[in-house]
Protein backbone atom coordinates (compact mmCIF):
# COMPACT_ATOMS: atom_id res chain seq x y z
CA UNK A 1 0.00 0.00 0.00
CA UNK A 2 0.90 3.68 -0.18
CA UNK A 3 0.68 5.25 3.27
CA UNK A 4 0.86 8.81 1.92
CA UNK A 5 -2.24 10.81 2.84
CA UNK A 6 -3.89 8.15 5.01
CA UNK A 7 -3.38 9.85 8.37
CA UNK A 8 -6.62 11.85 8.40
CA UNK A 9 -10.23 11.48 7.29
CA UNK A 10 -10.55 7.69 7.12
CA UNK A 11 -13.67 6.21 8.73
CA UNK A 12 -13.42 2.51 7.86
CA UNK A 13 -11.78 -0.38 6.02
CA UNK A 14 -13.24 -3.31 4.07
CA UNK A 15 -11.37 -6.58 3.70
CA UNK A 16 -12.77 -9.27 1.37
CA UNK A 17 -11.57 -12.86 1.07
CA UNK A 18 -9.67 -13.28 4.32
CA UNK A 19 -9.81 -17.11 4.68
CA UNK A 20 -9.18 -17.04 8.42
CA UNK A 21 -6.29 -14.55 8.32
CA UNK A 22 -6.32 -10.81 7.84
CA UNK A 23 -2.93 -9.24 8.36
CA UNK A 24 -3.85 -6.31 6.10
CA UNK A 25 -7.08 -5.56 7.93
CA UNK A 26 -5.56 -5.72 11.38
CA UNK A 27 -2.65 -3.53 10.30
CA UNK A 28 -4.85 -0.71 8.98
CA UNK A 29 -7.33 -0.99 11.88
CA UNK A 30 -4.48 -0.73 14.38
CA UNK A 31 -2.46 1.94 12.61
CA UNK A 32 -5.31 4.27 11.63
CA UNK A 33 -7.76 3.46 14.46
CA UNK A 34 -10.67 2.83 12.10
CA UNK A 35 -13.40 0.15 12.19
CA UNK A 36 -12.65 -2.91 10.07
CA UNK A 37 -15.29 -4.98 8.27
CA UNK A 38 -14.16 -8.44 7.15
CA UNK A 39 -16.03 -10.67 4.69
CA UNK A 40 -15.65 -14.34 3.81
CA UNK A 41 -18.38 -16.92 3.10
CA UNK A 42 -15.95 -19.83 2.55
CA UNK A 43 -14.22 -19.84 5.95
CA UNK A 44 -16.11 -19.03 9.15
CA UNK A 45 -12.94 -18.76 11.23
CA UNK A 46 -12.55 -15.25 12.57
CA UNK A 47 -8.97 -13.96 12.66
CA UNK A 48 -7.39 -12.99 15.94
CA UNK A 49 -8.32 -9.35 16.63
CA UNK A 50 -5.66 -6.74 17.17
CA UNK A 51 -5.60 -5.12 20.60
CA UNK A 52 -7.98 -2.18 20.88
CA UNK A 53 -9.32 -2.63 17.33
CA UNK A 54 -12.97 -2.50 16.27
CA UNK A 55 -13.49 -5.51 13.99
CA UNK A 56 -16.73 -6.86 12.53
CA UNK A 57 -16.51 -10.26 10.85
CA UNK A 58 -19.27 -11.12 8.35
CA UNK A 59 -19.72 -14.72 7.21
CA UNK A 60 -20.72 -13.58 3.74
CA UNK A 61 -19.20 -12.68 0.37
CA UNK A 62 -19.57 -9.78 -2.03
CA UNK A 63 -22.08 -10.01 -4.90
CA UNK A 64 -21.97 -8.16 -8.19
CA UNK A 65 -24.91 -5.81 -8.74
CA UNK A 66 -26.56 -7.63 -11.65
CA UNK A 67 -26.51 -11.09 -10.05
CA UNK A 68 -29.61 -12.77 -8.67
CA UNK A 69 -29.89 -12.79 -4.85
CA UNK A 70 -27.74 -15.51 -3.35
CA UNK A 71 -27.49 -16.92 0.16
CA UNK A 72 -24.59 -15.42 2.15
CA UNK A 73 -23.82 -12.94 -0.65
CA UNK A 74 -24.56 -9.21 -0.60
CA UNK A 75 -23.75 -6.28 -2.85
CA UNK A 76 -21.36 -3.55 -1.81
CA UNK A 77 -24.31 -1.17 -1.51
CA UNK A 78 -26.00 -3.54 0.96
CA UNK A 79 -22.80 -3.98 2.94
CA UNK A 80 -22.21 -0.23 3.09
CA UNK A 81 -25.70 0.22 4.49
CA UNK A 82 -25.38 -2.54 7.08
CA UNK A 83 -21.96 -1.36 8.26
CA UNK A 84 -23.07 2.28 8.58
CA UNK A 85 -21.15 3.68 5.62
CA UNK A 86 -23.98 4.25 3.14
CA UNK A 87 -23.42 8.00 3.46
CA UNK A 88 -19.66 7.91 3.89
CA UNK A 89 -17.82 10.76 2.22
CA UNK A 90 -15.73 10.23 -0.89
CA UNK A 91 -12.18 8.96 -0.18
CA UNK A 92 -12.97 8.02 3.42
CA UNK A 93 -12.66 4.20 3.17
CA UNK A 94 -9.97 1.62 2.35
CA UNK A 95 -10.54 -1.56 0.35
CA UNK A 96 -8.64 -4.84 0.05
CA UNK A 97 -10.28 -7.50 -2.13
CA UNK A 98 -9.11 -11.03 -3.02
CA UNK A 99 -12.16 -12.99 -4.16
CA UNK A 100 -10.92 -15.45 -6.79
CA UNK A 101 -12.07 -13.62 -9.96
CA UNK A 102 -15.39 -12.30 -8.58
CA UNK A 103 -13.66 -8.89 -8.45
CA UNK A 104 -14.09 -8.35 -12.20
CA UNK A 105 -17.90 -8.36 -12.17
CA UNK A 106 -18.06 -6.48 -8.87
CA UNK A 107 -15.95 -3.62 -10.23
CA UNK A 108 -17.61 -3.61 -13.66
CA UNK A 109 -21.14 -3.36 -12.20
CA UNK A 110 -20.64 -1.15 -9.13
CA UNK A 111 -21.90 2.46 -9.38
CA UNK A 112 -18.91 4.74 -9.76
CA UNK A 113 -20.09 6.73 -6.73
CA UNK A 114 -19.53 3.65 -4.55
CA UNK A 115 -15.98 3.28 -5.81
CA UNK A 116 -15.28 6.95 -5.09
CA UNK A 117 -15.86 6.29 -1.39
CA UNK A 118 -12.48 4.55 -1.32
CA UNK A 119 -9.21 6.39 -0.97
CA UNK A 120 -7.07 3.40 -1.84
CA UNK A 121 -7.82 -0.02 -3.33
CA UNK A 122 -5.68 -3.14 -3.16
CA UNK A 123 -6.95 -5.94 -5.39
CA UNK A 124 -5.76 -9.32 -6.60
CA UNK A 125 -6.89 -9.75 -10.21
CA UNK A 126 -7.28 -13.38 -11.29
CA UNK A 127 -6.98 -15.37 -14.51
CA UNK A 128 -5.60 -12.86 -16.99
CA UNK A 129 -5.23 -15.78 -19.42
CA UNK A 130 -9.02 -16.05 -19.97
CA UNK A 131 -9.18 -14.03 -23.17
CA UNK A 132 -12.94 -14.61 -23.51
CA UNK A 133 -13.36 -12.43 -20.42
CA UNK A 134 -11.11 -9.56 -21.49
CA UNK A 135 -14.13 -7.40 -22.40
CA UNK A 136 -15.36 -7.75 -18.82
CA UNK A 137 -11.88 -7.02 -17.49
CA UNK A 138 -11.77 -3.82 -19.53
CA UNK A 139 -15.11 -2.68 -18.09
CA UNK A 140 -13.80 -3.33 -14.58
CA UNK A 141 -10.57 -1.38 -14.90
CA UNK A 142 -12.33 1.46 -16.73
CA UNK A 143 -14.76 1.78 -13.80
CA UNK A 144 -11.81 2.09 -11.42
CA UNK A 145 -10.28 4.71 -13.71
CA UNK A 146 -13.59 6.60 -13.93
CA UNK A 147 -13.68 6.69 -10.12
CA UNK A 148 -10.44 8.67 -10.15
CA UNK A 149 -7.86 5.97 -9.45
CA UNK A 150 -4.46 5.31 -10.97
CA UNK A 151 -2.17 2.31 -10.62
CA UNK A 152 0.64 2.87 -8.11
CA UNK A 153 2.09 -0.65 -7.91
CA UNK A 154 1.91 -4.04 -9.62
CA UNK A 155 3.02 -7.40 -8.22
CA UNK A 156 2.78 -10.76 -9.97
CA UNK A 157 1.60 -13.59 -7.71
CA UNK A 158 3.74 -16.64 -8.47
CA UNK A 159 1.02 -18.98 -7.17
CA UNK A 160 -1.06 -18.09 -10.22
CA UNK A 161 0.49 -19.85 -13.20
CA UNK A 162 3.38 -17.62 -14.27
CA UNK A 163 3.41 -15.23 -17.20
CA UNK A 164 0.81 -15.12 -19.95
CA UNK A 165 1.80 -13.93 -23.41
CA UNK A 166 -0.20 -11.68 -25.72
CA UNK A 167 1.82 -10.85 -28.80
CA UNK A 168 4.83 -8.80 -27.76
CA UNK A 169 3.52 -8.36 -24.20
CA UNK A 170 3.60 -10.59 -21.15
CA UNK A 171 1.74 -10.27 -17.86
CA UNK A 172 1.34 -12.45 -14.73
CA UNK A 173 -1.79 -14.60 -14.72
CA UNK A 174 -2.61 -13.36 -11.20
CA UNK A 175 -1.75 -9.74 -10.60
CA UNK A 176 -1.87 -7.74 -7.38
CA UNK A 177 -2.58 -4.04 -7.99
CA UNK A 178 -2.48 -1.04 -5.67
CA UNK A 179 -4.67 1.88 -6.76
CA UNK A 180 -4.35 5.40 -5.37
CA UNK A 181 -6.17 8.60 -6.25
CA UNK A 182 -4.88 9.88 -9.56
CA UNK A 183 -2.40 12.70 -8.83
CA UNK A 184 -3.47 16.05 -10.22
CA UNK A 185 0.07 16.56 -11.51
CA UNK A 186 -0.05 13.29 -13.45
CA UNK A 187 2.10 10.20 -13.07
CA UNK A 188 5.49 10.45 -11.41
CA UNK A 189 8.68 9.69 -13.31
CA UNK A 190 11.60 7.39 -12.41
CA UNK A 191 9.65 5.15 -10.03
CA UNK A 192 11.74 2.05 -9.13
CA UNK A 193 10.60 -1.09 -10.91
CA UNK A 194 11.29 -3.26 -7.85
CA UNK A 195 11.02 -2.38 -4.16
CA UNK A 196 12.29 -4.49 -1.21
CA UNK A 197 8.75 -5.57 -0.25
CA UNK A 198 8.33 -7.29 -3.64
CA UNK A 199 8.90 -10.89 -2.56
CA UNK A 200 7.49 -14.11 -4.06
CA UNK A 201 4.09 -15.05 -2.63
CA UNK A 202 5.21 -18.69 -2.73
CA UNK A 203 8.81 -18.87 -1.52
CA UNK A 204 9.13 -22.46 -2.82
CA UNK A 205 8.56 -21.39 -6.44
CA UNK A 206 10.63 -19.10 -8.68
CA UNK A 207 9.72 -15.44 -8.69
CA UNK A 208 7.84 -14.34 -11.79
CA UNK A 209 10.26 -12.68 -14.24
CA UNK A 210 9.79 -9.10 -15.31
CA UNK A 211 6.64 -8.53 -17.36
CA UNK A 212 6.63 -6.43 -20.50
CA UNK A 213 3.63 -4.14 -20.61
CA UNK A 214 2.46 -1.37 -22.90
CA UNK A 215 3.11 2.11 -21.58
CA UNK A 216 -0.63 2.77 -21.42
CA UNK A 217 -3.25 0.13 -20.60
N-to-C order of helices and strands: EHEEEEHEHHEHEEEE
The low-pLDDT segments are: 213-217
**What is the count of β-strands?**
11
Portion of residues in beta strands equals 15-25%
How do the strands of the widest beta sheet line up side by side?
Answer: 3-2-1-6-7-11-8
CATH level 1 name: Alpha Beta
- Average of pLDDT: 92
Explain how this protein is built:
The protein is globular. The C terminus is likely disordered. The protein has a seven-stranded mixed beta sheet, sandwiched between helices. Strands 4-5 form a two-stranded parallel sheet. A two-stranded antiparallel ribbon has the order 9-10. It is α/β, with parallel strands linked by helices. The chain contains five helices and eleven strands. It starts with 11 loop residues before the first strand and ends in a 36-residue tail after the last strand. Helix 3 packs across helix 5. 20% of the residues lie in helices and 24% in strands. The protein has one domain: Rossmann fold.
Topology, element by element:
Blueprint: E1 12-16, H1 23-32, E2 36-39, E3 55-58, E4 61-62, E5 73-74, H2 76-83, E6 93-97, H3 102-109, H4 112-115, E7 118-125, H5 134-146, E8 149-156, E9 163-166, E10 169-172, E11 175-181
Parallel strand pairs: 1-2, 1-6, 2-3, 4-5, 6-7
Antiparallel strand pairs: 7-11, 8-11, 9-10
Amino acid sequence: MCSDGLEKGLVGAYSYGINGFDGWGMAVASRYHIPLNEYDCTNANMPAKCSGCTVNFHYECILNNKAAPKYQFKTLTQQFKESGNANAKDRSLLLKIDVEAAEWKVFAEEPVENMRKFREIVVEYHWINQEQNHGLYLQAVKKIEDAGFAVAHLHGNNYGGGLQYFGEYSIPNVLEVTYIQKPTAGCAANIPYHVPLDQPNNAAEPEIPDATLPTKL
